[in-house]
Amino acid sequence: MLHRSSHRSDSDSIDVEKKDTEAIEVVVGSAHVKAVTDEERAWLASIDTKEQDRIYHKVDRRLVPMLALLYLIAHLDRANIGNAKIEGLETDLNMEGNDYNIALMVFFVPYVLCEVPSNMLLSKFSKPSTYIGILVLCWGLVMTFSGLTKSFAGLCGTRFLIGFFEAGFFPGAMWLVSQWYPPQKTQTRMACFYLSSALSGSFSGLLAAGIAQMDGLRGWRWIFILEGIISVIIGAGCFFLLPDSPSSASWLKPEEARFLDLSHLAYRGVKATHNADGTKKPHVNMSVLKQVACDWQLYLQAMVFWSNVVPNYGLKFTMPSIIKSMGFTSTTAQLLTAPPYFCGAVAAVVSALFADRISWRMPFIVFHQLLLVIAFAVLMSFADVIRQNVALCYFMVCLACVGLYPIIPGNNSWTVNNLAGAEKRATGLAFMIAIGNCGGFAGSFIYLPEEAPTYPTGFGSSLGFATAGICAAFLLETLYWMSNKRNEHITEQEAIAQYGEEELERLGDKSPLFKYSY
């Protein structure tokens, strides 16, 4: 039995002496693994629910705000080109035709290609804070110097580098969350820092409206330079403020760190950097990448991802122009981009809270996809008379954001919970996000300058991808249910007799004992 250290207060210690008779809850989506001993499971079962919640809230205060801040600046730096556009960017760099759309697209080439190798590399790092901190510093420096570019080619070069360095952050942050929390607690945490993507839109518009009034340089140059400097400062803080793992967190009590480590092993399986027998994995396992590439569910999850990415990037890059076309000045249009993003941020958190509470992702994803269908159908119908229907169309822009921002946290949580094995989870999540972010190429070109201000291609494509996402979500739910139904009569003893424990571990989410989560 563990004893409390004398310097700990009762309120800040785990009550290890209170014994519950209940076993640890079996989480849907967990694989058959022998990652913890029976004695360790008994110790975990002795921790009451209130004590567990206190520990996770303690982690929340350290991990989630830092990830949210990093995610905010990531989206700020990739999307501020939309604010720069109406502050003279195209005129100063002699851009014409589809040059702006090309500059948007260039970002996604390295962003898509580098996500999987970056996450495979990150899963081998003992200090993710170092890896992520370097990425943030690098893209912040590039963002700063992009404010000094003199040509369209220079703009494309800086956009390419920003995409290269940002590629590793989002899937890396998702992986880091999955290392600290059990499956049923992931979506709310993901939503809490993903909401900063929505807030970045609000913040970017407000910040751009103020920065653009500065003297000395053109407004768009100040936007890039000052927002880049902010990223550099926050990136430097990442080395000291972003927690790596429970075992290395000095702010956790020993029993708290042990609880988090053992909980992760009990729910998720073996350590990300270790084999089933406990030996260190010396290099990137290419067989895992092959398993991931052949996993059908990731392609359907990517289609759900597209229902957000294509409309989201298209709207994010074009919203200032859409609102300006309603008859507002550039400064007013910048300011009016804030409320829609704020609505999206609130919706992301509320949706995640309910989804985590009932442990069911699909209905909340589909509900918000339906809101997207309504919003873009109305915008498409009234685009020709947008100045005569400003209130309605602006409300639909807000509704579109309410539909957009809850999808990704639900989609990523759904994916994470249905991948067994830490290494496959890291690689599989990055793979799905990489495929999903291919939608960024489409999002960069659906709002064509020659179609302004009605943007039939933009609104119509967004409507189509939202509809396809609904179909993909229903198909996923059906296939998950069929798989669970097919294996529900297989007992643990039968599976072990047929496959053996090592083979069941290797099979991961393809094991007959694995239960997909909905």
TrEMBL record:
State the annotated membrane topology for this chain: Multi-pass membrane protein
Sequence intervals crossing the membrane: 101-122, 129-148, 160-181, 193-214, 220-242, 335-355, 362-383, 389-408, 429-448, 454-476
A single cellular component GO annotation? membrane
| Classification via PROSITE patterns | MFS (PS50850)
**One GO molecular-function entry:** transmembrane transporter activity
Q: Which segments constitute the Major facilitator superfamily (MFS) profile domain?
A: 63-486
Task: Kindly give the InterPro entries that the UniProt entry links to this protein.
Answer: MFS, MFS_dom, MFS_trans_sf
Q: Where in the cell is it found?
A: Membrane
Chief subcellular site? membrane
Q: Which SUPFAM superfamilies match?
A: MFS general substrate transporter (SSF103473)
What is the official name of this protein in its record?
Major facilitator superfamily (MFS) profile domain-containing protein
**Source organism of this protein record:** Zymoseptoria tritici (strain CBS 115943 / IPO323) (Speckled leaf blotch fungus)
